[in-house]
Design brief:
alpha+beta, globular, 27% helix, binds 2-amino-4-trifluoromethylsulfanyl-butyric acid, Creatine Amidinohydrolase, 254 residues, binds cobalt (II) ion, five-stranded antiparallel sheet
């Protein structure tokens, strides 16, 4: 079942979104060679708690951390570790979900650790662009397939591939709600979106094959080439969309 959010629920999701994106920002400021992914996790955790919110990933189906830290060929769901130290030249996706008064915000960004290859820089840039391509023209009445088609087309135009077995999802009281939102597909197909739906659009773009394998929680590319991830929680409106995982004015927190 796909839920339609009330104005009151959307208000709470805006605050959750603000907390989520600021937690990622705090982590981003500390990304550098020599820091462990465990230290990054603590930064996000402490920030979320300081805002009176809850880290939704922690304990979710046994996931042991606040953020997912996915380096290079790890596409998503990397677990932060004390003995995993960032090295110059890596790229790392930080995926974070925070709940405020029971409502979730979910976002991800990919950061460069020091100086990275041109291919990795391009991968980060194209992945973000894929997200914004998906928003073009998106509004009530658009179809689910329009989103995936836009992401896939932009990724392939740049010689990259959009991951298939994982995708976006509805979000609200639960971190994962219906519908599943594929990051590839055909425009004009799939269900029609309605105003008040809140979904996560999250391109996971691989430099090589989109084929993955699971190694515990880690989802890795089969060819071990790098991948990037960019995600926001998005509200569908009658006349367009609103990104909910964005910073609110500082005096508008509570
Ligand atoms: N944003 C991620 C997702 O939607 C967060 C899940 S991590 C988990 O898949 F551990 F909580 F599953
Ligand atoms: Co998500």
């Amino acid at each position: 079942m796909i839920s339609i959010k009330s104005q009151k629920e959307i208000e709470l999701m805006r605050v959750a979104g603000d907390i989520t994106i600021r937690a990622i920002e705090e982590v981003g400021k500390n990304i550098r060679p020599g820091i462990s992914t465990k230290e990054l996790d603590k930064i996000a955790h402490d920030y979320i708690i300081s805002r009176g919110a809850k880290p939704s990933c922690l304990g979710y189906e046994g996931f042991p951390a606040t953020i997912c830290t996915s380096i290079d060929e790890v596409v998503v769901h990397g677990i932060p570790r004390e003995d995993e130290i960032l090295k110059e030249g890596q790229i790392i996706s930080i995926d974070c979900v925070a709940a405020y008064k029971g409502y979730n915000g979910d976002a991800a960004r990919t950061f460069a650790v020091g100086k990275v290859s041109e291919e990795k820089q391009k991968l980060i840039k194209v992945t973000e662009e894929c997200f914004y391509k998906a928003l073009e023209g998106l509004k009530e009445g658009s179809r689910l397939g329009d989103i995936g088609a836009a992401v896939q087309k932009h990724a392939e135009k740049h010689g990259f591939n959009s991951v298939r077995v994982m995708g976006g999802h509805g979000i609200g009281r639960h971190m994962h709600e219906d519908p599943f939102v594929p990051m590839y597909g055909t425009a004009g197909t799939g269900i029609k979106l309605k105003a008040g739906m809140t979904i996560c659009i999250e391109p996971m773009i691989a430099a090589g094959t989109y084929d993955l394998y699971l190694n515990g929680w880690d989802a890795r590319t089969r060819d071990a080439r790098p991948s990037a991830h960019y995600e926001n929680t998005v509200l569908i409106k009658e006349d367009g969309v609103e990104i909910l995982t964005k910073k609110l004015e500082a005096n508008n927190f509570e």
